[in-house]
């Protein structure tokens, strides 16, 4: 299968999907400036999987006598290297073997330093690869660790070493240590290349000793991964058209249809009269079919003059391959490229065929060339393939922002990818259960994405917020570990966690019983929240009412989700006490402003733009929307629609919507910079790095968030 869209050495690249070369050298001594290489061994890894068929092993003539003390360690004497090629002859092969991979090793900066000096000695151009040291990783994970030798690390991790002190033997041992460290890194919240580099920098004592030994390049030559303001000008430009438009914006509607008993002659006459390249075949008693220009040509080539009398029912393709109307064009084009389609059906919210999208509406080659994220999610069969897509999002977001796309639209794309990953995780889990003998789903269901993912406002600090709704007639035991849905939900959450969307720290996941219910159970739970709006109930309500289906078992599953939404909104609308409490809670969040309107920063010069900025807007919009029965999920739409229904100031509503987008842009830009620097993305931005215009606009925006309190008071009046 072709690889996903991740740049190999991007800081956002997840370890689970990172291609690395584990390398070791044997030398004439430990002086990196003067000693020479006598043996190189390397092995390729994909994530935590060692590819022992992809190895590099070579013994070279160092050009100087091998000291006896060195021979006693690696067993190579002058006689063993006599007649072997010199290093200059093998360096091109080594560089080709490494390629764009990250190099991993034990005390790898020693090996890099020796190679650097050897390259200079032989006049070879050496571009030093990005490197990770397992000794620094281990020391970063455990600050009390004293012995970071390869033997000690292997012993502590249960790794068996064979072929010690041969270059390939040590490389393989290091590869096994690196693989064994990855679960520990995951537990420590370290998932990406950049985060691993940051972890390694914690081992300051060990780094100092390596620097004293001359293992690092001069500072001017060393890669600088320090935190910097995002330089959007350095990002690859992205044609954002495909990321702005959805199928509903460009489809032909309604689809042109013909009866199933019509002849090919009648179908071609209709196509010619309407200037279209396909026709929908209806009246088959089942799912509609489609006849395209390709089908016409194939029948004519086969039947000749008799082709005109062929019945379209007999040559149509069914069912029509479709995508929902709100699908972004980049994702639709990815699907069409994967399935080799020229025409794609477009369905409405009820799953009915509402239109046709054709590549004739776009210049196909130009369109596909702009894809940063295509249809790789649909092709993924395991978590590391999904992780590649997750890791591509920072680069995609950066390019789209540089192209001038509004941050809210970028957040919508990130959210769409998150929902697609959740859907694919569900498909993978279903397939695994079927192969394991547990059969298909025993009841209709919908897997829901909650919170920012459901609102379409996701940024780059993801976690899982999902839930499961199951048909009310399900007779299984949702409390039993043996239940199909328990197994399913547990596996979905596990796949997403491994793919780079971590488990929710608050436990809002379908694998937990509180978020796995039948439709009647969900409605009872919603009534319980509204009757007794405790602080915990309010937290649950806040995240629950933003849900949207990511994956459904069938049309009946989609109807389950829609029924839950409409009935849950009506329940909330009738609970005045809960709405009042929600409004009071939303209005209690104060913007981070001090005396004279100065922005309050922490010791690191950062300010949390979620707690004092986005949260009152998002929570306030939710409360207002529920009060007025607004079904929109996006925060700006909730504010605008609810204000319109209540006859309130549209100018104020539009201002708050703009502030929401501005705050999202600041957070998203900071997250991109943090990810590239190996810093975990959050909602805290470095105010000191803002330009004067953004700084002044932020201060003004935070001051105007008070408007949400006024709107809450007005729109919740009478409660």
CATH classification class of the largest domain: Alpha Beta
In order across it, which strands form the biggest sheet? 3-2-1-4-5
Low-confidence stretches: 1-7, 219-236
Which class best fits the helix and strand makeup? alpha/beta
CATH superfamily of the largest domain: Ribonuclease H-like superfamily/Ribonuclease H
CATH architecture title of the largest domain: 2-Layer Sandwich
Total number of beta strands: 17
Helix content: 40-55%
Query: What is the fold-level CATH name, i.e. the topology of the largest domain?
Result: Nucleotidyltransferase, domain 5
Strand proportion, as a percent range, falls in 5-15%
Description of the molecule:
The chain is of the alpha/beta class and 719 residues long. It folds into 4 domains: 15-225, Nucleotidyltransferase, domain 5 (2-Layer Sandwich), CATH 3.30.420.10; 241-369, CBS-domain (Roll), CATH 3.10.580; 412-571, Beta Polymerase, domain 2; 586-715. The strands form 5 sheets. It has a 5-stranded mixed beta sheet with strand order 3-2-1-4-5, with helices on both faces. Helix 24 runs antiparallel to helix 29 (706-715) and helix 26 packs antiparallel against helix 27. It is globular. It starts with 18 loop residues before the first strand and ends with a helix.
Task: Chart the SSEs and their pairings.
Blueprint: E1 19-27, E2 37-46, E3 49-59, H1 68-74, H2 78-81, H3 87-98, E4 102-105, H4 108-122, E5 131-133, H5 134-141, H6 150-157, H7 167-187, H8 193-200, H9 204-212, H10 241-244, H11 247-250, E6 257-259, H12 264-274, E7 278-282, E8 289-292, H13 293-303, E9 322-324, H14 329-339, E10 343-347, E11 353-358, H15 364-369, H16 376-379, H17 383-402, H18 407-435, E12 445-449, H19 451-455, E13 466-470, H20 484-498, E14 516-518, H21 519-531, H22 535-544, E15 548-552, H23 555-573, H24 576-587, E16 606-608, H25 610-627, H26 635-646, H27 650-676, E17 684-686, H28 692-704, H29 706-715
Parallel strand pairs: 1-4, 4-5, 6-7, 9-10, 13-14
Antiparallel strand pairs: 1-2, 2-3, 7-8, 10-11, 12-13, 12-15, 16-17
Helix pairs in contact: 5-7, 5-8, 6-7, 17-18, 17-20, 17-27, 18-20, 21-23, 24-25, 24-29, 25-26, 25-27, 25-29, 26-27, 27-28
Organism: Polymorphum gilvum (strain LMG 25793 / CGMCC 1.9160 / SL003B-26A1)
Domain CBS: 251-306, 316-373
GO biological process, one term: DNA replication proofreading
